[in-house]
Amino acid sequence: MSTDTASHGPRIYRGLNHKEGIGWIAGMTPVQAFLLIAVCAPALIAMSRNQWSATLGWGLFAAFVAVLILVPVHGRPAFRWLADLTMFQTGVLMRWSPWQSRAAAGLAGDRSEPDLPGVLARLEFPDGPEFLGSRICLIHDTAEGRWGATAKLTHSGVGMLSDDECERLASRLGSMLVGLGHREIVDRVSLCVRTVPDDGTEYSVWRDRHQRGDAPALARQVTAEIDRDVASVSVRTELFVTVSGTEEALRRPAKAAGGGITGRAYALYRLLEGVADGLRGLGVTSVTWLTSTGVAEAIKTGFNPAAAASLSFRHLTSPDPDGTVGLPISQAGPALAPTPAARAYHHDGFSSVSYAVQPPESGTIFGSLGPLLAVRTAGERRTLAVHYEILSAAEGSRVVKSDRFRNNVLVDAKAARGFNTTEIDSRRQRGAREQEAAVAAGHAVVRFTVASSITVPADWNVEDHAARLENDASGRFRLLRLELAQDSAFVAAALPVGIGLPRQKRAFTA
């Protein structure tokens, strides 16, 4: 998806949204058009030779193949489904898909070397130089050549805010993204919200420290019963933000700062305070940039929500004077991720189902994703991640001009051949012109994706809880279950490492 973000007004969520990758040739991509011509060619050749029986046979074959190529089924054409299923089954049969940590296998490893499954295996987590009293963990995506950092945020939420207050927050978010785009160093921002089943560990430790020895026995009993009942249904939320920039954008400022990992860290550090200020304008009360142990715990609790209690207890009861309490990055991943299923992801005694969230074409408002985080059953965990990519001014201008040209060509071609122009065509044409005008006025183009997941203990029926998540989205958003890619979808929806926004499909799309 892509949208215009204005410095004023909540355009970040509505008005100019359009889907990414709409084909140039009657809505087809060049590959689809080439394949369609190839399968239709034998029928046309037979027709030119007056071989009508062969024409009929080849025509039926071409029609069947055209349906497989062009008709989407749950977001993917049949040929794409077949290719994805072939790759999925190949990984299972060749034993490439099952994964086991080094610790579970009894193998020793370096504490600073990550041991993560799937797409996470491409990440490195070097420590940067000291910043605001701690050494921030850098997230290096070796596949895409990106460098980023993650912060844990404290926010009071938007559930009780009025529509006007949500409008102001949307405007401030748009202003923050536009400001980052002008700097052209950080171009991706990922917000990840996770619910946390609150078992009362922190409160229990606090009570043990402040318990009065002379308290009446009846008061102790009543308090214990209340704590037990409340703890079983309590839910907290945790919020993370990950910012990252490309190797190309960081290379020059990093070289000026000394080069290497340290230079790239300093190039990022120069923007982190600005990002923190922008987040405070959105109602964030505290921004804590994570060290390697903080990132390890964020990943670990993503895979295993039950680990949060033990980690919290460790921090509360045995703080280390040097502040290094926490997991090493080598223990951040799950102990075991068995053979992946097509419709769910199983990890560390839990099962997760992840979705791509498709906002309505008419747009939405700030805070409308809240129902996807509404826990229905004590013990389940829901997550929501929004990934933004701010295109540079030159790239954004090129994108909107190309989009306007494509829509004009489609409308003019239909009119020239006597076909009726649909309202969708007209709306896309108007939207392309308005978007080009907005970018010319100094606004930015932002690509974004939204992913959501639900996690429950492995012995629960995960399909029942997935159906409840779909019910909460019904009438608001469309959920597209990312089948055959549940492990990667889980990373995009639940782990604050900045992975989740696909590369642009073509240079001329937004």
Provide the helix percentage: 40-55%
Distance between the termini: 7 Å
Report low-confidence residues grouped into runs of 5 or more: 1-15, 506-510
Q: What value does the average pLDDT take? A: 82
- What is the C-alpha radius of gyration, as a whole number of Å? 26 Å
Structural class: alpha+beta
The main pleated sheet reads as: 13 strands, antiparallel
Walk me through this protein's architecture.
The radius of gyration is 26 Å and the shape is globular. 43% of the residues lie in helices and 21% in strands. It has helices at 30-48, 52-70, 78-93, 163-183, 201-210, 217-231, 247-256, 260-280, 292-303, 307-317, 393-416, 423-440, 462-473, 486-494; strands at 2-5, 72-73, 76-77, 99-100, 123-124, 127-131, 134-141, 146-155, 188-197, 235-246, 284-289, 336-337, 345-347, 350-358, 381-390, 444-457, 478-481. The strands form three sheets. Strands 1, 5, 6, 7, 8, 9, 10, 11, 13, 14, 15, 16 and 17 form a 13-stranded antiparallel β-sheet that branches. It is an alpha+beta fold and 510 residues long.
Record keyword descriptors for this entry.
disordered C terminus; 510 residues; 13-stranded antiparallel beta sheet; alpha+beta
